[in-house]
Write a structure and sequence with these properties.
Largest sheet: none
Shape: globular
Oligomer: single chain
Number of domains: 2
Structural class: mainly alpha
Number of helices: 18
Helix content: over 70%
Order of helices and strands: HHHHHHHHHHHHHHHHHH
Radius of gyration: 23 Å
Strand content: under 5%
Length: 515
């Protein structure tokens, strides 16, 4: 088993040459490939669940997932993010004893808070069941979710270790294996037990995550650190300061999602939650591919230069440009083929989700732009600002859903998400300017205008043109945008840095010049 070279892995390229873009594309390729495979597993799992359970069953699964997510966030105390930051900082010093101490503290802290979080959910299973479902009938299932909470907390800490060490290839592998095993076992459980198997399937997915993350975390060799629990408590304080802020922000997001589903259930019933969940999951499929690739390598890199504003802003602009070029064509395609995507990945019963889906796609385009800027707050450790902005966004999210549901019906849930993303973009941009003097580069401003116009054209075409003409128009726009994005990507990175197969394809399609 190899030992990572901690000094070299965090060495950052300077300047605006192809090396930095090459690093972005390399990490995006590794994590993106694993995310793409995970999307395949999620599609398979989603399709099977839709066929086996129907809209009401998918809505029930969504509520269980929301409970599990909220409890996991509270239990995890933000260690999944603060752990990455602390380990990346320790690795950047090259001090092996500091690295070992940080890793040991992270592991012990995760074990402790995971156990406490699981026990807390067991103790509160009845109130949680009454708040979610209106009765106590689901309290046993809620208590069983405590296992998923414990497993997920340990998995998050182990994954933070791998990511903080910037072992991107291992991060990609553990993600794929966890998704594979989780999909196989969860589908099997639901197939035999129906709705009674929903919570066991969530526990199974979490168990597969802890198994695979443990396997790859143990490959990351660090010195053994013998420290007492009293020292762990002292060292963990810094880890938890930022972690609590991150936990609070994540908790606000998940709580908002939970409340939105409760509002939809009260307004339109359990099937409506299923429609909303279908639109939400599909709207995030492709964007998750981009954002996970950003978080995997970009966050540790940005943390290492957080005190140098020009370098920090350059990395954010480069990441934003690559995000535009990769996400733009994919979201245009998703927007174009929305009715087919819903029917293919769910069933014809889920067609009411199409209208919500389109608005969510518009919001996801804005999220791709907002995401890199948001990391500036985390990299600089601005806990209070991060938490305050998350509170504003979450409160606005729920408020907009309440208003838009009354104005537009169920599709208003999608409209509310788009309005939230538009507002959040402006808020995060303001914060980035205050923290580092951030300005978008000229190329990013041009790309923003270009993709805004193309996205608006495809979106409006569905309301002005017949079905087949709008699909043809959207397909043409997607093809043009995709060709432009590929040519731009090939111009950013020297052709020889791509695999030979891609080099030949690029030259044959005249997307790049030989040599």
């Amino acid at each position: 088993m190899e030992t990572p070279s901690v000094n070299c892995e965090l060495a950052l390229p300077r300047g605006n040459g192809g090396q930095s873009y090459g690093q972005i594309l390399k990490s995006s390729g590794l994590v993106g490939s694993s995310s793409l495979i995970n999307v395949g597993f999620r599609i398979l799992r989603t399709k099977v669940m839709a066929l086996l359970l129907g809209p009401s069953g998918v809505g029930l699964l969504s509520l269980y997932s929301s409970i599990s997510d909220m409890a996991t966030i509270v239990s995890g105390m933000g260690l999944s993010s603060s752990g990455v930051r602390q380990i990346a900082e320790a690795v950047g010093t090259g001090n092996t004893k500091r690295i070992a101490r940080t890793v040991t503290v992270l592991r012990r802290t995760a074990l402790l808070v995971g156990a406490v979080g699981a026990l807390l959910l067991v103790a509160l299973c009845r109130p949680v069941s009454r708040a979610t479902f209106g009765d106590d009938r689901h309290s046993g299932q809620v208590a069983l979710l405590s296992l998923a909470v414990f497993f997920s907390t340990i998995t998050a800490a182990q994954t933070a270790l791998v990511q903080g060490m910037r072992r991107i290839a291992d991060l990609a592998r553990l993600s794929v294996l966890g998704a594979l095993f989780g999909t196989v076992f969860s589908i099997t459980i639901v197939y035999f037990f129906g709705q009674q198997g929903l919570v066991p399937s969530l526990v199974c997915v979490a168990a597969m995550g802890i198994a695979t993350s443990w396997w790859y975390a143990r490959k990351t060799r660090v010195e053994r650190a013998m420290i007492a629990w009293s020292q762990v408590r002292q060292e963990a304080s810094e880890l938890l300061k930022l972690g609590l802020a991150m936990m609070g922000g994540a908790m606000l997001n998940v709580l908002a999602a939970y409340l939105i589903r409760i509002v939809i259930r009260l307004d339109a019933g359990m099937a409506a939650i299923g429609f909303y969940q279908a639109a939400w999951v599909l709207g995030g499929f492709y964007v998750d591919f981009i954002l996970q690739a950003m978080a995997a390598d970009f966050y540790p890199r940005l943390t290492a230069v957080a005190r140098h504003d020009p370098e920090c802003n350059r990395l954010v602009n480069e990441q934003t440009e690559v995000g535009f070029l990769i996400a733009g064509p994919g979201l245009l395609a998703t927007l174009t083929f929305a009715p087919l995507v819903i029917s293919l990945l769910y069933s014809a019963k889920f067609q009411p989700a199409v209208g919500i889906f389109r608005w969510i796609c518009l919001g996801m385009m804005l999220r791709v732009v907002t995401w890199p800027m948001g990391f500036i707050q985390l990299a600089k450790g601005r806990r209070k600002l991060f938490l305050g902005l998350q509170f504003v966004a979450s409160a606005l999210n729920v408020g907009l859903v309440l208003i838009c549901l009354k104005l537009f019906g169920l599709v208003g849930a999608g409209v509310a998400f788009f309005l939230l993303c538009l507002t959040h973009l402006n808020i995060v941009h303001w914060a980035a300017r205050q923290l580092s003097g951030f300005r978008w580069s000229s190329i990013n401003r041009r790309l923003g205008v270009l993709f805004a116009l193309l996205t608006a054209a495809v979106f409006i075409s569905w309301y002005l043109l017949p079905f087949h003409l709008s699909m043809l128009f959207g397909g043409l726009i997607t093809l043009i945008a995709g060709t432009y994005s590929l040519k731009r990507l090939f111009s950013l990175v020297p052709l020889q840095r791509f695999p030979p197969v891609l080099q030949r394809i690029a030259v044959n399609l005249r997307l790049a010049r030989a040599g």
